[in-house]
Specification:
333 residues, alpha+beta, Fructose-1,6-Bisphosphatase, Chain A, domain 1, 2 domains, eight-stranded mixed beta sheet, five-stranded mixed beta sheet, 7 helices, binds 6-O-phosphono-alpha-D-fructofuranose
Length: 333
């Protein structure tokens, strides 16, 4: 049984930066994931941890108590390993400076962007939820600036998620494939369970909130109808649980497209570019798929603000290409 730590050490030549710093970073991610997993698994038992804090976060969304808990746990854990110099979180309006660059912390080179607990509105109904993380090397030489966080997605050195579902799985990429490690909660160790995840050849699933159908651009409507047609390759199965990590994890393993387009209630889409779409797009491409906003590669988008949103499509290349064709014209066949 291969543990995450052993796997990183045995594959250290695949990582451009120091293995020690990567191990320290993963050590903080694993620690936070285990703490959150414990709370998620007993959310129904302790009224103190489920439900809303009553706070409306920067996104204008009701902050769940577990959201807040997950945010705090990750911040404290990432601070403690002396490899992170700055953090941006869905739950915090501005970025958080951990250490400026000076002699005694030259190792602090990582910039971490985080959705501490995505899909948290599902907490009270036991639907899988997840933490999404995205890591860059700082650009600044002395003081941390916003530009350290507004890097294009193709500059990510590490991206992944933890899905808290029927089991807790940490999935990540450093640019050499996608790997999944399942937590054995009895001993608190993550073991390699999904070596080299890639989209299967057979495309099976389309995932979109069809409750918004009337609001969608015409190209999206045509693509949904295309997915529903009956022929030897279709209809596809519709699956949508309203939790990006849960929907994406299933689609990457079983073969499917996830779509959150813009619509007239969300002119720029709903999902956040920096800590939802970029990390999922990196994983998508590393798993042999494609991720775009309907016309542009997600990883090429130059961010202009921490919490900016984007239309988001990710999945098997052929399905994404077909959707983009519908978006370009009134293409329909
Ligand atoms: P809707 C959860 O709030 C989230 O950010 C993603 O995890 C999820 O895919 C999406 O929003 C669901 O949004 O509008 O379909 O409920």
């Amino acid at each position: 049984m291969y543990t995450l730590g052993e796997f990183i050490i045995d594959n250290k030549d695949r990582f451009l930066y120091s293995t020690e710093s990567l191990l320290r970073l993963f050590s903080s991610i694993k620690l936070a994931a285990k703490a959150i997993n414990k709370e998620v698994n007993k959310a129904g038992l302790t009224k103190t941890i489920i439900g809303s804090t009553g706070i409306i976060n920067i996104q204008g969304e009701k902050q769940q108590k577990l959201d807040n808990y997950a945010h705090k746990v990750f911040i404290e854990s990432l601070k403690s390993r002396n490899v992170v110099c700055g953090i941006a979180s869905e739950e915090e309006k501005d970025f958080i400076i951990i250490k400026e660059k000076n002699d005694n912390c030259s190792k602090n080179e990582y910039i971490v962007l985080l959705d501490p607990l995505d899909g948290s509105s599902n907490i009270d109904v036991n639907v899988p939820i997840g933490t999404i993380f995205s890591v860059y090397i700082r650009k600044s030489s002395v003081n941390i600036t916003l530009e350290d966080f507004l890097q294009e997605g193709y500059r990510q050195i590490l991206a992944g998620y933890i899905i808290y579902g029927s089991s807790t799985i940490l999935v990540y990429t450093i640019g050499n494939g996608v790997y999944g490690f399942t937590l054995d909660p009895t001993i608190g160790t993550f073991y390699l369970s999904h070596p080299n995840i890639s989209f299967p050849k057979k495309e099976k699933i389309y995932s979109i909130n069809e409750g918004n159908y009337d609001k969608f651009p015409i190209g999206i409507k045509h693509f949904i109808k295309y997915c529903q047609e009956t022929n030897e390759n279709r209809p596809y199965t519709a699956r949508y649980i309203g939790s990006l990590v849960g929907d994406f994890h299933r689609n990457m393993i079983q073969g499917g497209i996830y779509i959150y387009p813009n619509h007239y209630d969300c002119p720029h889409g709903k999902l956040r570019l920096l800590y939802e779409c970029n990390p999922i797009a990196f994983l998508t491409e590393q798993a042999g798929g494609k991720a775009s906003d309907g016309t542009t590669r997600i990883l090429n988008i130059k961010p202009s603000s921490l919490h900016q949103r984007t239309p988001f499509i990710c999945g098997p290349i052929n399905m994404v290409n077909k959707l983009e064709a519908f978006m370009k014209t009134n293409y329909y066949e």
